[in-house]
């Protein structure tokens, strides 16, 4: 039985193992989330230590292990790490993205299905947009979070009422109800939302960047708060990296 396999992957996280090794958490295109040991990678003589930094897009060969796979070869596809870590705002947004991706793909439930590469492709596109400064970092982050949650089955309603389906736009948002709510369905604890903020949420979810880029700072600030609350509710905990993100 051939225990070697190869895949494209994004490095989500690394942590030390023993004196010279690291455990690498990868989100792969075809095998879901993979945890592997990179042996000797912390030595200065390591052949591929710099290629296994968080945020890097790589082509990796692994040997299937009982508990952890073993990295045997690595080639860099896109060196996002250097472009991302040079800017604190970009770095904190990217950190929140990879932490979210790690949480959402822990069980790799979509492996070998039609949806298998979707979280991988979404994260790859978001990291590329961050690294190349295509849009404001906060907008890229919030768009990624909304779309990642949507892929996980938790898409918020940003127009019609999440409870009764009454056509929008509506001016209230309730995290537990699933997004926008009409006046008839509005539960206690709903947040009043400016029309421009609700439009921004819809644009971030759908990828309508012309609308998102033209949004006002107050709309972005309110949208970010709603996205953070929505993410925390569904993940059932606040991400450590999210508290470091700089919000305008």
Query: Average pLDDT, to the nearest integer?
Result: 89
Please count the helical segments.
7
Beta-strand percent range: 15-25%
Q: Can you write the helix and strand succession as a string? A: EEEEEHHHHEEEHHH
Q: What is the terminal separation in angstroms?
A: 54 Å
Number of domains: 2
Structural class: alpha+beta
Give the helix proportion (percent range).
25-40%
Question: Biggest sheet, in brief?
Answer: 5 strands, mixed, barrel
**What order do the strands of the largest sheet run in, or round the barrel if closed?**
1-2-3-5-4
Radius of gyration: 20 Å
Query: What coarse outline follows from CA principal-axis ratios?
Result: elongated
State the total count of DSSP E strands: 8
- Which regions are unreliable across 5 or more consecutive residues at pLDDT < 50? none
Family: Belongs to the RecO family.
Function: Involved in DNA repair and RecF pathway recombination.
Domain DNA replication/recombination mediator RecO N-terminal: 4-80
Organism: Actinomyces radicidentis
Which helices and strands, and how do they pair?
Layout: E1 4-17, E2 21-28, E3 33-38, E4 57-63, E5 69-78, H1 80-85, H2 88-104, H3 118-131, H4 137-151, E6 172-174, E7 179-180, E8 191-192, H5 195-206, H6 209-213, H7 217-235
Parallel strand pairs: 3-5
Antiparallel strand pairs: 1-2, 1-4, 2-3, 4-5, 6-7, 6-8
Gist of the model:
The protein has two domains: 4-81, OB fold (Dihydrolipoamide Acetyltransferase, E2P), CATH 2.40.50; 135-235, no CATH class.
Plain-language structure description:
The chain folds into two domains: 4-81, Beta Barrel (OB fold (Dihydrolipoamide Acetyltransferase, E2P)), CATH 2.40.50; 135-235, no CATH class. It is built from seven helices and eight strands. The protein has helices at residues 80-85, 88-104, 118-131, 137-151, 195-206, 209-213, 217-235; strands at residues 4-17, 21-28, 33-38, 57-63, 69-78, 172-174, 179-180, 191-192. It has a five-stranded mixed beta barrel with strand order 1-2-3-5-4. A three-stranded antiparallel beta sheet has the order 7-6-8, with no helix packed on it. Strand 2 and strand 3 (33-38) form a beta hairpin. The longest helix is centred in the C-terminal third of the chain and has 19 residues, at 217-235. The chain is elongated, with a radius of gyration of 20 Å. The mean pLDDT is 89.
């Amino acid at each position: 039985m051939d225990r070697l396999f190869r895949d494209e992957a994004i490095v989500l996280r690394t942590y030390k193992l023993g004196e010279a090794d690291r455990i690498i958490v990868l989100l792969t295109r075809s095998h879901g989330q993979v945890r592997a040991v990179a042996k000797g990678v912390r030595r200065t003589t390591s052949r591929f230590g710099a290629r296994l930094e968080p945020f890097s897009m790589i082509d990796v060969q692994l040997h299937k292990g009982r508990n952890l796979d073993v990295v045997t070869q690595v080639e860099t596809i896109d060196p996002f790490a250097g472009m991302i870590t040079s800017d604190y705002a970009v770095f904190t947004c990217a950190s929140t993205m990879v932490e979210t991706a790690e949480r959402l793909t822990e069980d790799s439930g979509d492996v070998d299905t039609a949806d298998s590469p979707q979280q991988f492709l979404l994260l790859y596109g978001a990291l590329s947009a961050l690294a190349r400064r295509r849009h404001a970092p906060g907008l890229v982050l919030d768009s990624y979070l909304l779309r990642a949650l949507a892929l996980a089955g938790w898409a918020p309603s940003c127009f019609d009422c999440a409870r009764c389906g009454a056509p929008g736009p509506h001016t209230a948002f309730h995290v537990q109800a699933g997004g926008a709510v009409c006046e008839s369905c509005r539960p206690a604890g709903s947040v009043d939302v400016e029309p421009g903020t609700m439009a921004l949420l819809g644009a971030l979810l759908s990828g309508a960047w012309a609308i998102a880029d033209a949004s006002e700072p107050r709309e972005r600030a309110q949208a970010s708060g709603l996205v953070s609350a929505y993410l925390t509710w569904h993940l059932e905990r606040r991400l450590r990296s999210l508290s470091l993100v700089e919000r305008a």
